[in-house]
Design a protein that fits this description.
The complex is a heterodimer of chains A (253) and B (321).
Chain A: E1 8-19, E2 22-33, E3 37-41, H1 48-55, E4 63-68, E5 71-72, H2 78-84, E6 86-89, H3 101-112, H4 121-137, H5 153-165, E7 171-175, H6 183-200, E8 203-207, H7 211-217, E9 220-225, E10 228-233, H8 235-240, H9 242-250
Chain B: H1 2-8, H2 10-32, H3 34-60, H4 69-86, H5 90-93, H6 96-112, H7 117-137, H8 139-142, E1 148-149, H9 160-182, H10 185-195, H11 197-203, H12 207-233, E2 235-236, H13 243-256, H14 263-281, H15 285-299, H16 303-314
Helix pairs in contact in B: 2-3, 2-9, 3-9, 3-12, 3-13, 3-14, 4-6, 4-7, 4-12, 6-7, 6-12, 10-11, 10-12, 13-14, 14-15
Classes of the chains: A alpha/beta (253), B mainly alpha (321).
Bound molecules: adenosine-5'-triphosphate and magnesium ion.
């Protein structure tokens, strides 16, 4: 099978991040092509979340270079990256817990449209309509006026995913989007994500522990171990890789 | 669309009825209880604006300020200094109080928002102490500990009752603007950063910028309150920027109830009443006041506003937020 060639959307060169003595990322080189659905897998503590946060600009003191569409984004703040087209979710979902679901989504659209300085009700109403529409798409309309704090974990994750989509990001970074969901929910969400990525031609980088989901959704897979990249390839190559099997069998789960 | 209409339009009538009722009640007290009643009403109203300005920061921005009196004091002094040192006519000087407070909020805020949580709070305290010290020690300009007095007829010569009514109108305008801020895109941004700055950042907000905007708005309205206070008494003292007023504002907001727009309003009402009446009844008023506050907080963990909301809910009279 030939890989469709398209421009590199993300390039990491020599990424290194330490927490005190501990090396969380050790000289990581990584390429991501536009339109890929790229899975990042590896045992606990491998550095997957750290890598995602490096790309999203959320970690201080990172050595090396990150290029987004050919431009060095190493010095940009997370909010600047968001406006340049990088959207993300967090491993432990982050939403505005005291607000309603609709308010959360409206906030995401207000921020994405960069109209947060506005005092106008009309501006709010316009973004609220977009938000209500997104809630319909991700199936949370019924919950619109409930506080996020009262939502089960899976729905919070779904909401956070919808919020990350508000800015229509070119690169979507999802850190364990299905953690805490039932198997059925997982496949449901990730099928939806994959469909959306394919339909819009955007790029997806996601961390996922459920190997079935990975093999079904991903077009490429990168395996991380102890702060470095072990191997990168198609799902079929990764599934057949002896080293990868050893890492996963050697793990407690 | 439907959902929005159903939620937002229906209670609007009730909200307006509530506001009209509150204004009528205060005005009745103002007109029917003589000079002392009018003075009390005026003080309550000024404190409502002051506490509500802090409430914007605390309830919506989740920013705890330990130095909010700085902007109250700057409001008083901006007004008083404009008259005494720059010969601005007193009516025109009214704008310089909130203006100076806003500028103070911009300068100190830019410093404070670089830190978060308790470190933020400590910085606001430090900024307020700097303000207090400058007001206290710069004799040639601020009059030092003797303050600024005798630069105007208190209340512009208005009767106590008329001043209270005028203050009420101004307070209504201030509260309406704050209400609009909270329920605008800006308000949503302020709440977003308050609840999860990392999520807000990942969505494209600069947390510091949002917090600075909130800080300046808050300082401005504290300055309005401070200016009104200076007009009320016809003077300005360093204490207006001191720990006493900072503490009063904090107590009013917490007593009134965090996470509620009317928290500052209820807190100002009840706390000012307590502070005025408890000392008349007992010599150990500070102890009694403390016990009453403790009791209220224990009975109503969400503050007075939360208690009122619950009571309204029991009476089938919801949507008092
Ligand atoms: N703030 C921090 N301070 C110190 N060590 C940290 C910090 N954050 C992460 N680490 C360590 O860095 C290593 C990599 O963490 P990271 O969260 O990137 O792993 P991960 O691959 O996402 O694992 P998981 O599958 O458990 O989410 C871990 O050993 C973790 O303990
Ligand atoms: Mg992780």
């Amino acid at each position: 099978m030939t890989q469709l060639r398209s421009d590199l959307i993300l390039t990491a060169r020599g990424l290194r991040k330490t927490y005190g003595q501990f090396v969380a990322l050790n000289d990581v080189n990584f390429d991501l092509r536009g339109g890929e659905k790229h899975a990042l897998i590896g045992p606990n503590g491998a550095g997957k979340s750290t890598f995602i946060s490096c790309v999203a600009g959320q970690l201080p003191g990172v050595e090396g270079a990150v290029l987004f569409r050919g431009r060095d984004i190493g010095s940009l703040r997370p909010h600047q990256l968001a406006h340049r087209g990088i959207g993300r979710t967090f491993q432990i979902s982050r939403t505005f817990l005291q607000m309603t679901v609709l308010e959360n989504m409206t906030a995401a659209y207000v921020i994405a449209a960069d109209s947060w300085t506005s005092l106008r009700r009309r501006v709010l109403a316009r973004q609220q309509d977009k938000a209500a529409n997104m809630l319909r798409i991700i199936g949370l309309s019924q919950r619109a006026h409930e506080r996020v704090l009262d939502l089960p974990l899976g729905e919070r994750k779904r909401l956070e995913f919808g919020m990350a989509l508000a800015g229509d990001p070119d690169l979507l970074l999802l850190d364990e989007p299905t953690a805490g969901m039932s198997i059925k929910e997982r496949h449901h969400l990730m099928d939806f994500v994959a469909e959306r990525i394919d339909a819009t031609g955007k790029t997806l980088l996601f961390v996922e522990h459920d190997i079935d989901v990975v093999l079904k959704i991903a077009s490429r897979v990168t395996v991380m171990v102890r702060g470095g990249i072990l191997v990168e390839g198609t799902p079929a190559e990764i599934a057949a890789n002896k080293e990868v099997q050893a890492v996963y069998l050697g793990e407690a789960h | 669309m439907m959902a929005r209409l159903a939620r937002a339009e229906m209670p609007r009538l009730r909200q307006m009825l509530f506001v009209a009722g509150a204004v009528a009640a205060l005005e009745a007290v103002n007109r029917l209880t003589g000079v002392s009643g009018s003075l009390l009403v005026a003080e309550i109203i000024i404190m409502m604006v002051f506490a509500s300005s802090l409430n914007l920061l605390m309830s919506f921005g989740h920013m705890v300020s330990f130095g909010h009196a700085a902007y109250f004091g700057l409001g008083s002094y901006g007004f008083a200094l404009a008259i005494t040192r720059f010969d601005v006519p007193a009516e025109a000087a009214l704008v310089f109080g909130p203006l100076l407070a806003g500028i103070g909020g911009l300068v100190f805020g830019a410093l404070c928002v670089r830190l978060t949580e308790i470190y933020f709070a400590m910085l606001t305290l430090a900024c307020a102490q700097i303000t207090y010290t400058v007001l206290f020690q710069w004799y040639d300009f601020t009059g030092g500990d003797t303050g600024l007095t005798g630069f105007m007829t208190p209340r512009f010569g208005l009767s106590e009752a008329n001043f209270a009514s005028a203050a009420m109108v101004l307070a209504l305008v201030c509260l309406y603007v704050l209400w609009r801020v909270v329920h605008s895109p800006l308000g949503l941004a302020i709440r977003s950063v308050g609840q999860d700055r990392y999520r807000a950042e990942a969505l494209g907000l600069s947390p510091r910028r949002v917090q600075l905007v909130a800080f300046v708005i808050s300082a401005f309205f504290a300055g309005v309150a401070g200016t009104l206070f200076a007009v009320f008494h016809g003077n300005a003292f360093p204490d207006y920027a001191g720990l006493g007023f900072t503490l009063d504002a904090l107590i009013m907001v917490v007593l009134g109830g965090l996470n509620s727009f009317l928290g500052g309003v209820w807190g100002a009402l009840v706390y000012t009443l307590l502070k005025n009446f408890v000392p008349l009844m007992t010599a150990h008023w500070e102890l009694i006041l403390g016990l009453i506050l403790l009791a209220i907080v224990l009975v109503m963990p969400h503050g007075l506003a939360g208690g009122v909301k619950r009571l309204a809910g029991m009476l089938g009279w919801g949507a008092l937020r």
